[in-house]
Amino acid sequence: MTTRDCAGLTTREINVIVRELAATGETELCLRNPEARHNLLVGLFAHLRVRLEGSAGYFCAGMIDGPEVVIDGNVGWSVAENMMSGRVTVAGNAGSSTGATIRGGTLIVHGNAGARTGIAMKGGTIVVGGNTGYMTGFMMQRGDMIICGDAGEALGDSMYTGRIFVGGKIAELGNDAVIEPLTDDDQAFLSVTLQKAGLDNGRDFKKVVSGRRLWNFSKKEMGLWIQAL
Amino acid sequence: MCGLAGLLYKQERGEGALGAPILTMLDVLGSRGVDGTGVALYGPASRDRMVARVRLGGSDDRRAQADRVVQRAAAIGRVASADVQDDYLRLEMSSNRDAAELAAAIEGPDLGVLVFSLGQRMEIVKQVGPARMLRERYGLDCFRGTHGIGHTRLATESRVDVAHCHPFWARPFPDIAVVHNGQLTNYHKMRRRFEMRGVRFYTENDSEFIAIYLAHKLAAGVSLEDAMKDSLEELDGTFTYLVSTPEGIGLARDAFATKPMVIAETDQWVALASEEVALRRAIREPFDTEEPSARTIRVWRHPGVAAALTPVGAGV
């Protein structure tokens, strides 16, 4: 395993170092003193493990395809945004737009996540050990989200498909988001995913899906549309 | 964009370095916009002293302008000290006039002279340009006190000049200031409503409205928490703002939570910034952070100072 100190380096220098090490076949890398810099590890396609010893700023591990990233501290906005594949684990809290538009991979936040978590996600899995903020899962198109704590207002607003599981309280469901009973497949998915994430499965999860009433426009349901828009 | 910063020492008699850490945060937050940088810092309290930060400007010689200001101040009170630093005159004085009269008297007929802050403890210094410039010109790194707020600006709705930089003093209410990230969409409507009651505004910046709005509520006996809760309902648009009073710092975030904020808190202090990277660069000790959720109202009070101060007249 290789260790590098980020102190005094620019974001670009750090990202170049990571790519160069990956090109030499390095499989495990530890970065000291990330100091909440933005844009760390963005666009990393190599299959290596990277550990950040501290907090990261905005867009950490955005657009990655393959790597396994562990952040020992907190992250700012848009962690793992548009991830294609890979695994990102945040030991602390995450800011707003956590896992926005991800298409694949797994994002695990052990603490709380902010507003608009999983907004427009198109695949993959997001697991949050704590609570999530306002408008989580807004316009979610595919994929799975597990929230072990409470979910903020407008949960799953205008979602197309996908599943959101909530272990705590739901402050308010969004437009056209409905609760339906869990199937055996759902239970199995929860159990396996939470175990892999190192999180407790001792809660009574609710399942939120799309009510599908906003899929097609109908004049007869004008009221529904006026409210949703 | 815009960047916000705040720092408050929680221990009684807990004065500490204010200027250096807040300006370091603003330096890092400069990536969010550098149309202007400013701070509102709370120094040691004094019962009978007012401190004014007066911006000198126009085509006049600064020294001559400062002399005229001091003469006008001496006519209605006792001037303890008057220091000119670049574009600013820092005036310490005692007077039995209220803040509104004092500020008007200090400005007098000089068109370029603007009173940016007046109070027993609060000092506002702001400038068009990045934090580095503010730091180099005004020696703020040495400023010590109980708490302070700061701002780095990306101008969106109003012009780029020093008067439209943050923080905004809630003139004429002493020792109250606001820094704001966002836009108020009902600004003109709310401002007209206040103007019809005779309230004067000094800029065309919507953030100035927040300061004056909150100060009016405080003057009417509403608690800071309740005043800020009201703002969540009555102010429309996107906002995260910090308000500073002699007691401490308040934080409010609107219902959409689109303007960022990060809180770091220990037993000794609380530090606030739009981005964690600013906190990490300014404070070199271990701390944890959290992002406040939508509709968050938080107030941190300094335990030592509030009771020691009596309010100075704030006639409107």
Question: Secondary-structure element sequence of chain B?
Answer: EEHEEHEEHEEHEEEEHHHEEEEHEE
Instruction: List low-confidence stretches of chain A.
Output: none
**Low-pLDDT ranges of chain B:** 307-316
Largest sheet of chain B: 7 strands, antiparallel
Strand-residue proportion of chain A:
15-25%
The average pLDDT of chain A is 96
- Which bin fits the share of residues in helices of chain B? 25-40%
Helix amount of chain A? 10-25%
Question: Strand portion of chain B, in percent?
Answer: 25-35%
Give the name of the CATH superfamily of the largest domain in chain B: Aminohydrolase, N-terminal nucleophile (Ntn) domain
Overall radius of gyration of chain A: 18 Å
Question: Class of the largest domain in chain B in CATH?
Answer: Alpha Beta
Number of DSSP E strands of chain A: 11
The CATH topology of the largest domain in chain B is what? Glutamine Phosphoribosylpyrophosphate, subunit 1, domain 1
Question: Please, what is the average pLDDT of chain B?
Answer: 92
The largest inter-chain interface, given as chain pair and residues per side, is: A-B, 24 and 18 residues
Shape of chain A: elongated
Q: Helical region count of chain B?
A: 8
Order of helices and strands of chain A: EHEEEEEEEEEHEH
- Strand tally of chain B: 18
Overall structural domain count of chain A: 2
Sequence-ordered SSE layout with sheet pairings:
The complex is a heterodimer of chains A (229) and B (316).
Chain A: E1 2-5, H1 11-23, E2 28-32, E3 49-53, E4 65-71, E5 85-90, E6 106-109, E7 122-128, E8 142-147, E9 163-166, E10 177-180, H2 184-197, E11 206-210, H3 222-228
Parallel strand pairs in A: 1-2, 2-3, 3-4, 4-5, 5-6, 6-7, 7-8, 8-9
Antiparallel strand pairs in A: 9-11, 10-11
Chain B: E1 3-9, E2 16-17, H1 19-29, E3 36-42, E4 50-55, H2 62-76, E5 78-85, E6 88-94, H3 99-107, E7 114-119, E8 122-127, H4 131-138, E9 144-145, E10 147-153, E11 168-169, E12 177-184, H5 187-196, H6 206-219, H7 224-234, E13 237-244, E14 248-253, E15 262-265, E16 269-273, H8 276-282, E17 289-290, E18 297-301
Antiparallel strand pairs in B: 1-10, 1-16, 2-9, 3-8, 3-10, 4-6, 4-7, 5-6, 11-12, 12-13, 13-14, 14-18, 15-16, 15-17
